[in-house]
Amino acid sequence: MKSRINKYTLMLALLLPAIAVKAQTEYSLNKALEYALINNENVKNAQLSTLDAEAQVFETRADGLPQITAGFNYTNNLFIAKSPIPNSFITGDPNAEGVTLVGFGAQHVGNLNVGLEQMLWDGSFFIGLQAAKVLREKVIVDKAKAEVDVIEQVTKAYYLVLVNQTRVDLINANLLTLNTTLDETRTLYENGFAERIDVSRLQVQTNNLLAERSGVEQSVKASKDLLKLSMGMPVTEEITLTGELEALDFKYDLSELDGFALSNRLEVQQLNFLKELAGLQIKNTTSQYIPKVTFNAGWGRNTGSNDFSDLTNGKKWFSNSQIGLNVSIPIFDGLRKKYTIQRNKIELETLNNQYSLLTNSLSQEFENAKRNLEVSLEQLEVQESNMELAQEVSSITKEKYKEGVGSNLEVTNAEKDYKEAETNYLNALYNAIISKVDLDKALGKLRNNDN
């Protein structure tokens, strides 16, 4: 029995690593973006802001609807206050002297009332309702801007992971080749056809690659953590990327570049809404010079008795009702509204200046993004050519060394140059990716199609 348990324990121990690997979720770039647009905290907060803005519209609209209130109160006058009344007033005799204390009121008093108030005219209400609707539209754009920022962050972080993983793969390939060369050189040394220093050089190069691989593997982990943070995924979860660097397309149609328009940039739309809100604020303050008109109506019933049981007798309750019109006319407020309007106009002028600066900056950003992509692609082409040449030199140097017409030092230097060329190529590739993402953003292409 014990041997059977040990057997199952051993099988479970062998299966656990496989289960752990399967638990790692695989993500393409599109899948990572879909996850981020649902789980990123900034996007979720932006979504909450849209719900808040929607509620604010209905909250403002409620001020223009009838306001109905109802109330009931009961008072028990335990000790009724008494007032002195001249006896002459009570008896009718003007010569009567002295006063009599008389209590006014009943011990038990009840009152029931219903009131209605309806705003007929208030300039601030109509402008406030318009401002709430504009704010709702702005918050929707704010949400789209938050999504664009997340798309940019996730895309850059995703490709950073792929580049670092590729660096690890290249280092492993170089180590495989270098170990083969080291074994061959060690054999030649043992047979007297190579020097000890040749083996030492290759061993040093191998050790350096092993140390470099450890550093790059740590970079892979750090870049994955950055990606998960951008996605809104717990950093403790495992993630596997299925994207490939070879699938990248850096091409743009000329029509796309010629179609650049500032109106496509969400930053411009956000500032336009702020300018519109500032203009509405000026109108709102100006409207406060206009009288406000309110209609009100009320109905109620009341009673009073020294006997509490009378309060339950409907015949002893008396009805009352009234309607009214209230007109509030502003006359003088110490020039407060005048200076409030002055400040509002200054705010609008400030926004106009910010708009000018923003549009100029975005135009410059677009031009820089175009140039950066052109330069990055040129550098990428050069580094790719250099890597191919370095690989060719490395292969030729190895063949010459095997044929006995080359030195081990040449092989070592060629390998070093090839590895450096690979690193330069990957750096150039990542720079090109960043430049492309920046140009997509400048063109307003980094948008969530679900919006």
Automatic annotation (TrEMBL):
Stretch forming the signal peptide: 1-23
Keyword check for GTP-binding: no
Keyword Coiled coil part of the UniProt annotation: yes
Superkingdom of the source species: Bacteria
Coiled-coil boundaries: 341-390
Keywords noted in UniProt: Cell outer membrane, Coiled coil, Membrane, Signal, Transmembrane, Transmembrane beta strand, Transport
GO cellular component terms attached to this protein's record: cell outer membrane; efflux pump complex
Subcellular location: Cell outer membrane
Molecular function GO terms recorded: efflux transmembrane transporter activity; porin activity
Family affiliation: Belongs to the outer membrane factor (OMF) (TC 1.B.17) family.
Entry protein name: Transporter
Lineage: Bacteria, Pseudomonadati, Bacteroidota, Cytophagia, Cytophagales
